[in-house]
Amino acid sequence: MSAADQxxxxxxxxxxxxxxxxxxxxxxxxxxxxxxLIVSRSEPEPTMQPEHAAILRICGSPLSVAxxxxxxxxxxxxxTVLLADLLAEERIEARASVPKAILPDRALLEAVxxxxxxx
Length: 119
What we know:
InterPro entries: DUF742 (IPR007995). With 119 residues, the protein is mainly alpha-helical.
């Protein structure tokens, strides 16, 4: 394999470095998690980075960050950097996942079950 072929490998660290312009996803992890839903607010422009344009194209309907990562075949850390760029430019909307339901106290559930059993 030649050096030129290595530059185009999908999992190449160099390729990922170029895509993110050397930035890491550490700061963006506070904004996005795997189930954060992403929706496009604009159309891709011809001058955009290909990965940014791809995100805008596939997010016409809400997709989770995990789905975007899978569709683009990019690590989550790279996707969060790209999403942070698009969010800063107001090209996407990030929707928090549905919060976990607050369950009642176990003692209360047991009391209700015992009451129902007595009926």
